[in-house]
């Protein structure tokens, strides 16, 4: 059985509350009716229904709430500190993408003598190196000697350098 329709006086009060800025659900809760009933009465009184995302508070009715006038505005998109361009994204760092890429390209690289040589790359592929590596890990219980953790990124190191002391390359005590 359908609910009885509210009296014309109550319908006028519901429309007034909606026009003052309350939402359909709020007005329905105030008058103990369904929000669709409030909607039907507002349309019958020749008023336009606001979209759901627009909520009017009595304090802000008629005020422009864009940018600085909004209570939640945080200053808009940040600008790059190097080139001054307004960034289209709100990242915490201070550079835009183009300045960040330029900085990455100009970073100093390691000198050639500090990089691995072709000879050491070839040695590390050989069976002797793999056997030495297993022997070192087995001796240390597959744990890092410095921090005593067991991780997947274990790397064996020589006490005397691999390139400088070729006779000690596969000595397990080195």
Structural features, described:
- With 174 residues, this protein is mainly alpha-helical.
- 34% of the residues lie in helices and 0% in strands.
- The longest helix has 13 residues, at 8-20.
- It is elongated, with a radius of gyration of 37 Å.
- Segments where pLDDT lies below 50 for 5+ residues? none
Q: Biggest sheet: strands, sense, closure?
A: none
Helical percentage? 25-40%
Coarse morphology: elongated
Q: Which quaternary structure do these chains form? A: single chain
Strand content: under 5%
Distance between the termini: 92 Å
Helix- and strand-based class? mainly alpha
Radius of gyration using CA atoms only = 37 Å
The arrangement of helices and strands along the chain is HHHHHH
Whole-number mean pLDDT: 77
What's the total helix number? 6
Q: Using DSSP, what is the number of strands?
A: 0
List the helices and strands and how they pair.
Elements: H1 8-20, H2 24-31, H3 35-44, H4 97-105, H5 118-124, H6 127-139
Features:
174 residues, mainly alpha, 34% helix, 0% strand, elongated
Q: Summarize this, please?
A:
With 174 residues, this protein is mainly alpha-helical. The chain has helices spanning 8-20, 24-31, 35-44, 97-105, 118-124, 127-139.
């Amino acid at each position: 059985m359908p609910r009885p329709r509210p009296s014309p006086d109550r319908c006028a009060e519901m429309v007034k509350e909606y026009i003052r800025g309350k939402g359909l659900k709020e007005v329905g809760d105030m008058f103990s009716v369904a929000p669709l009933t409030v909607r039907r009465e507002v349309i019958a009184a020749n008023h336009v229904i606001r979209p759901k995302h627009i909520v009017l508070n009595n304090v802000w009715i008629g005020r422009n709430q864009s940018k600085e006038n909004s209570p939640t505005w945080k200053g808009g998109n940040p600008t790059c500190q190097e080139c001054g361009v307004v960034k289209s994204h709100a990242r915490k760092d201070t550079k835009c993408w183009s300045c960040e890429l330029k900085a990455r390209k100009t970073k100093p690289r390691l000198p050639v003598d500090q990089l691995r040589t072709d000879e050491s790359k070839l040695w590390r592929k050989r069976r002797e190196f793999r056997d030495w590596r297993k022997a070192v890990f087995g001796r240390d219980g597959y744990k890092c000697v410095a921090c005593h953790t067991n991780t997947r990124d274990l790397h064996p190191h020589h006490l005397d350098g691999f390139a400088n002391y070729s006779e000690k390359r596969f000595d397990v005590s080195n």
